[in-house]
Write a structure and sequence with these properties.
The chain has 5 helices and 6 strands; from the N terminus they run αβαββααββαβ. A hairpin with a 2-residue loop joins strand 2 (82-89) and strand 3 (92-101). By secondary structure, the protein is an alpha/beta fold.
Length: 200
């Protein structure tokens, strides 16, 4: 008895019409099999802007924000996405993780970010815009998400970020009522607004 023909890979990936045309009147053989072209998923870039200014050191906000950044990095690593991390505070804008494939080990870099000083948000967004444009050119238009983790304690009026398909403003102002500007930025930018939760 002739052994059953085994397709190499998932049978749902076989292009049956092309396979039958290639087979013609002959019995089906492995060399007749034609497969559907596999669509390669383009990794999503998650660009995280972490506010490490002096106000973030109050009330445990910076520790909470770093915890959220760590979780984002770990989730991106599990999903096979890319991630970048910028910290902005008294030392200016620091690229902690250049945009690239997410690795769980990158979470340790987020935990090491120190805090203090002012809030150079406008400069951080300028750097983010440049990184997003570079990533778009490299990935042929892959999707990008911008995550801003801040308490909104700055008088700067930052322009809307460019180059991100989706932006999320994660608010760490835990005072009631909040005195930060995160909600206003999100509304002005058309971004998603989230109030940071103590449970991550």
């Amino acid at each position: 008895m002739k052994p059953a023909l085994k397709a190499q890979g998932d049978s749902s990936a076989i292009a049956w019409l092309r396979t039958l045309l290639a087979k013609g009147p002959q019995p089906l053989q492995p060399e007749h099999l034609c497969y559907q072209p596999q669509m390669l998923a383009v990794p999503r870039l998650h660009l995280i802007l972490l506010d490490t200014s002096g106000s973030m050191r109050q009330g445990g906000r910076l520790a909470l924000a770093k915890g959220h950044a760590v979780r984002l990095i770990e989730q991106a690593a599990r999903a096979g996405d890319h991630v970048g991390l910028l910290c902005f505070g008294g030392n200016g804008v620091e690229m902690v993780l250049p945009p690239g494939p997410a690795r769980a080990a990158g979470a340790a870099r987020a935990r090491q970010c120190g805090g203090g000083g002012g809030t150079p948000l406008r400069r951080a967004l300028d750097v983010a815009n440049t990184l997003l444009a570079q990533a778009r050119r490299r990935s042929a238009g892959g999707p990008a998400w911008l995550w801003l983790l801040s308490d909104g304690r700055t008088l700067e009026q930052p322009a809307m970020p460019r180059g991100a398909e989706h932006a999320v403003v994660l608010d760490f102002d835990n005072r009631s009522p909040a005195i930060g500007r995160c909600a206003a930025w999100a509304e002005h930018w058309g971004a998603e607004y989230r109030l940071a939760s103590a449970s991550i």
